[in-house]
Design brief:
The protein is of the alpha+beta class and about 625 residues long. Helix content is about 30%, strand content about 30%. The strands form four sheets. Strands 1, 2, 6, 7, 8, 9, 10, 16, 19 and 20 form a ten-stranded antiparallel beta sheet that branches. β1 and β2 form a beta hairpin. The longest helix has 21 residues. The radius of gyration is 25 Å and the shape is globular.
């Protein structure tokens, strides 16, 4: 079998890929070799699904297929259509691969540390602080050059990653003829087999101290509120995608600790069932919040504002498509991070990014980008290799009872609804319209409502004919969440949704519920002022008094309605913070409408499903009566 590897050094050999995949059910100590021609495709729907596998290199610009804004840098959707496929034992592959060192000249980040730290501050203040989203991932790129770069260098780098970077989901080298990708990605983008879809949100980065990782320093990391909220936010964001592609929503498994050579991450696994074609699943999951931000659509706009140039393949995906023994489609796809992108002339790029949230420390985020690049840069010889694990090293961390207890405590803070698969009833009892304000939290809302017994239609705020459809709707209507300033009369989205809220309050008899942005617009129509919060509550789990009952709920808001004691609109009950006057929820005393600032569909709202059922029952009570 080593003959297959020796062929790769010959310039007459076709494009190739070597993959070590830690996919469940596979032999992890195996290296796959794929050889075949590479062509370019326009859309994911054009990718072939066949018995011999197809490997697609999906660039970030492909997110345009979802209608999102993205800088078109021309990076192609490249497709290696395997004509030969082999499997080689890992030990045999290591023995056969080149082992020489590869030198990088002139290496450094395109954005200096000080400038990146300043960008972190601007994003927190100008984007998160103005309601544009909960978190954003901003890229910087390590750049250098490998003189005389060739196939042997690519294979030598792959070998060094195999030996030096433990814990990767995929370790790979892909040589298309036009470029070479060498990397070790820790994160599943999406995989599908036998109708089961799996996603793997990873967030929160424990950077190993200079003296090596210890249980005490890990426990400090696990107890950091910023790191906990960061992971919960990306779980919510990927659950939105899972509810879009899954026939029965999704279920959350974990959390777990993913240990790598230079750092460790916290992660969850999301599982669902889908009847969609694998290419449609791939399209609807572009791209993870862990590499974009949330909500994803607006995160793409923020990326445009703060990053120079296109992202190339960074934050995109590799995607291995095929069929199993029964003929069913399969998909296995890691996120393209921790990867060196090398041009034929040896120009090298290693893009990395940090997830910026309201509690981010600029210096810490700078350090995080260095830590994320360290595995690939160590293989390139630019950074020192990670020390071998000691007794107190990372190899033992996840097994420590205190670490396991800390991870279990995080799970206890998640809504039980999302910890098991949920089945909608066979016969819906009504039909709800959900208006999407540019945040696919509405996919989660729709799933919870279906489980509650409703048929659900979701329509975006800018869909033609939405207003006419809403005014004619006979069942409950949910005005959903979305980014932006609800008081900005110059924003076409806010003008449209505010006018729709006013019309529905005045005429709709089927029941009206506002969630987050929808709630703020209802409150404004009822005469309550809208204010910017002193501190954004993006991804904040908070204990509140909700109409006399204590509830633990999840907030994603920068703006809020305000109501002083005794200033409640006539006939309206208001639940508010007794100190700040911020409105948590409101409802008509006679039924008909209600609004909640928090997200009942979020994993952070412990009794969210029960609360949402109660809210729907309240708003529809007047119609039933």
């Amino acid at each position: 079998m080593s003959t297959a590897l020796s062929r790769l050094l010959d310039d007459s050999c076709p494009p190739f890929a070597l993959l070590r995949r830690r996919t469940p059910g596979r032999d992890h100590d195996t290296v796959e070799v794929l050889l075949g021609p590479v062509h370019e495709a326009e859309r994911l729907a054009d990718l072939p699904v066949r018995e011999l596998p197809t490997l697609a290199l999906v660039p970030f610009r492909q997110i345009r297929e979802r209608g999102f804004d993205v800088r078109d840098d021309g990076t192609p959707l490249s497709v290696l259509v395997a004509e030969e496929a082999y499997e080689i034992p890992l030990a045999e592959a290591l023995a056969a691969l080149p082992s020489h060192s590869v030198r990088v000249d002139g290496g450094g980040f395109d954005v200096p540390d000080e400038e990146y730290a300043a960008t972190v501050e601007r994003v927190i203040e100008d984007e998160i602080g103005r309601g544009e989203g909960a978190n954003f991932v901003i890229r910087r790129t390590f750049e250098g050059r490998i003189e005389g770069f060739g196939r042997a260098d690519a294979l030598a780098l792959f070998r060094r990653l195999l030996e030096g970077e433990r814990g990767a989901y995929w370790t790979y080298v892909v040589h298309t003829g036009e470029r070479t990708l060498v990397g070790a990605s820790p994160e599943v983008h999406v995989r599908m087999s036998g109708g089961t879809v799996v996603m793997n949100p990873i967030s929160g980065t424990y950077r190993y101290p200079a003296g090596g990782p210890t249980v005490d320093s890990l426990l400090s990391f696990l107890g950091d509120r910023k790191e906990t909220e960061e992971l919960s936010m990306v779980v919510d964001e990927e659950l939105k995608m899972m509810c879009t592609v899954g026939d029965r929503g999704g279920v959350v498994v974990g959390p777990r600790l993913k240990e790598m050579s230079h750092l460790a991450h916290t992660e969850y696994e999301l599982r669902g069932r889908s009847s969609l074609d694998v290419r449609e699943v791939l399209r609807e999951t572009m791209f993870a919040a862990t590499v974009t931000g949330s909500p994803v659509q607006n995160a793409c706009r923020v990326i445009e504002r703060y990053e120079t140039g296109g992202r190339g393949y960074y934050a995109g995906a590799l995607a291995l498509l095929g069929v199993d023994a029964s003929g069913a489609q399969t998909l296995d796809s890691p996120i393209l991070i921790r990867t060196a992108d090398i041009a034929p002339d040896g120009t090298l790029r290693v893009p990395v990014g940090a997830t910026l949230v309201r509690h981010s420390d600029p210096g810490g985020e700078v350090a995080e980008t260095h830590a994320k690049a360290a595995g690939v840069l160590a293989a390139l010889g630019v950074r020192p290799a990670a020390p071998r694990p000691s007794f107190q090293g990372a190899a033992r961390l996840a097994e420590d009872p205190r670490v396991q207890a800390a991870l279990s405590a995080r799970r206890a803070d998640l809504a039980p609804f999302w910890l098991r698969m949920q089945e909608p009833p066979a016969a819906p009892s009504g039909h709800a319209l959900v208006v999407d304000g540019e945040d696919t939290f509405t996919a989660m809302l729709a799933h919870v409502l279906r489980v509650a017994g409703l048929e659900v239609t979701v329509r975006r705020y800018d869909d033609p004919g939405l207003r006419a459809a809403a005014l004619a709707w006979e069942g409950p209507i949910v005005l959903g969440p979305g980014p932006g300033n609800p008081a900005d009369a110059a924003d076409p989205k806010m003008r449209m949704l505010r006018a729709l809220a006013a019309e529905l309050l005045g005429s709709h008899r089927g029941g009206l519920l506002g969630v987050c942005l929808g709630h703020e617009l209802l409150a404004a129509e009822l005469g309550l002022p809208l204010i910017r919060k002193a501190e954004p509550a993006q991804g904040a789990q908070t204990r509140i008094d909700l109409f006399g009952a204590e509830e633990v709920v999840g907030f994603y808001n920068t703006y809020t309605a305000y109501c002083a004691e005794g200033a409640e609109p006539a006939g309206v009950e208001v639940s508010r913070d007794p100190v700040t006057g911020e409105v948590h929820a409101l409802r008509s005393a006679a039924g008909g409408f209600a609004g909640v600032q928090f997200h009942p569909e979020s994993v952070l709202t412990l009794r969210g499903a029960e609360l949402l059922r109660g809210l729907v029952a309240h708003v529809t009570a007047a119609a039933v009566a």
